[in-house]
Amino acid sequence: MIVDASGAGSEVNCPSCGMAVKVPEPDVTNIVPHNPIASSAAAREERHYSVPVREGPTEVLIKKPNPALGATVSEGPLQMRIRSIRRTDCMEVGHDRFDDKVSEFLAQVGEQNIISINSLAYTHLDMATRQLMTDYGVMIVYKG
What we know:
Number of helices: 2
Helix content: 10-25%
Distance between the termini: 81 Å
Number of strands: 8
Radius of gyration: 34 Å
Structural class: mainly beta
Strand order of the largest sheet: 3-4-8-7
Strand content: 25-35%
Oligomer: single chain
Order of helices and strands: EEHEEEEHEE
């Protein structure tokens, strides 16, 4: 039978014969502290890391992201902007607000500044179901 060190000096009943047995004082030379992290699979995994060493200037490993979908293209006096609105981004607590968001944006830009409105179809990974889903959106080209 195994008893925790806090039970030292107490009496317990033997599970096989039922007789009272006194738990001896712990032997300090035989105590091994239990570290659950050290015995885990992650602690037994060997990791070998290497850090690149360079003589000259280092290369940039973190690239800047592409400009946002509301990018600006300007050449001469004409300045065009592009705005893409995806239906997935317009879902709020189970309600589809795609039409409202597109209407709000078009009203904000003004009809005289709209150059074109194009429909988009795209696929994305649904994190809940882990499936590729097909969805739609619009790309609006306007003067700004």
